[in-house]
Design goal:
four-stranded antiparallel β-sheet, Nuclear Transport Factor 2, Chain: A, about 160 residues, alpha+beta
């Protein structure tokens, strides 16, 4: 898991370095449009959303990444930890969030909807926990916002 996340980060950094080196004017400080679109991808916003709730305990930051209806639901919780525990049934002492992309379909550039599978690997009360969530996002005014979170499709109860 850690290898894939390091590989993804390395690939993003290399592509960002290549894109900034392609500028005609070396004194230009503006980011190119390609570099801006790399930062605004559904996968990164999905990770930022759960990072704000489960790690940073910051509901205000999470609400900025959610559609208004989900932001209103988050308003009913006092802390990110409470929302994670009650709303998503997720508790972690230590947590690493990765994007599952092994069987990923190529996303159309002109679509306004995306689905991202996130893998949550961490510890709780000394035991290892692994959860998965399918996150549905919509593109509103050029910004990817979380619209729905599906439960772990592989979770088993009573085991």
């Amino acid at each position: 898991m850690r290898f894939y996340s390091l590989l993804l980060i390395s690939a993003l950094l290399c592509s960002a370095a290549l894109l900034t080196g392609c500028s005609d004017d070396p004194d230009t400080k503006e980011p190119t449009s390609s570099a801006a679109t790399i930062a605004e991808v559904p996968e990164s916003n999905a990770v930022k959303f759960f990072n704000a709730i489960l790690i940073e305990n910051d509901l205000t930051k999470a609400k900025k990444l959610a559609v208004p209806s989900l932001a209103r639901v988050l308003d009913s919780y006092s802390t990110g930890k409470a929302a994670g525990r009650t709303l998503f049934n997720m508790r972690f002492d230590k947590l690493e969030i990765t994007v599952e992309d092994t069987n990923k379909n190529v996303r159309e550039f002109y679509t306004d909807k995306a689905e991202v599978m996130l893998i949550f690997t961490g510890e709780y009360d000394g035991g290892k926990r692994v959860d998965m969530r399918m996150v549905k996002l919509v593109n509103q005014k050029g910004k990817w916002l979380i619209s729905e979170i599906k439960t772990d499709p592989f979770a088993r109860t009573g085991v």
